[in-house]
Amino acid sequence: MKLFLLSDNIDTYLGMRLAGIEGKVLHERDEVEQAVREAVDDPTVGILLITEKLADLCPDLIQSIKLGQKRMLVTEVPDRHGGSRAAGALERYVSEAIGVKM
């Protein structure tokens, strides 16, 4: 099983390539949907990494794959500028895990 990246920018793609992760740089919704479906159909892909910006282009498709796919893990990753969902995420996770508000 391998990791595969779908990115909206070349910097994230190059960083992942340096770590040995293959992928594609995409910008349009139809390109993203096609690439996601190709990754799902590829039996060698075990983890699909997709930047938050691309995941926001087709949220219904991503959600259905996350809920319906038993072989593949789909993970949304922030890009080089940080994630729109990352602010306060660590504090929120810790608070939920230990039950103490920070």
Helix and strand succession? EHEHEHHEH
Q: What is the CATH C level class, in words?
A: Alpha Beta
**How many individual β-strands?**
4
Helix-residue proportion: 40-55%
- The low-confidence runs, each spanning 5 or more residues with pLDDT under 50, are none
Number of domains: 1
The CATH architecture can be given as: 3-Layer(aba) Sandwich
Determine Rg (CA atoms, Å).
Answer: 15 Å
Q: Which geometry do the CA atoms define?
A: globular
DSSP summary: helix tally: 5
Cα distance spanning the termini: 38 Å
Q: Could you name the CATH homologous superfamily?
A: ATPase, V1 complex, subunit F
Strand order of the largest sheet: 2-1-3-4
Strand content: 15-25%
The chain-level mean pLDDT equals 84
Structural class: alpha/beta
Provide the CATH topology.
Rossmann fold
What does the largest sheet look like?
4 strands, parallel
Structure description:
It comes from Ligaoa zhengdingensis. The chain is of the alpha/beta class and 102 residues long. It has helices at 10-18, 29-41, 52-55, 59-68, 89-98, and strands at 2-7, 22-25, 45-51, 73-77. It is globular and about 40 Å long. It contains five helices and four strands, in the order βαβαβααβα. It has a four-stranded parallel beta sheet, with helices on both faces. The chain is 45% helix and 22% strand. It has one domain (2-98): Rossmann fold.
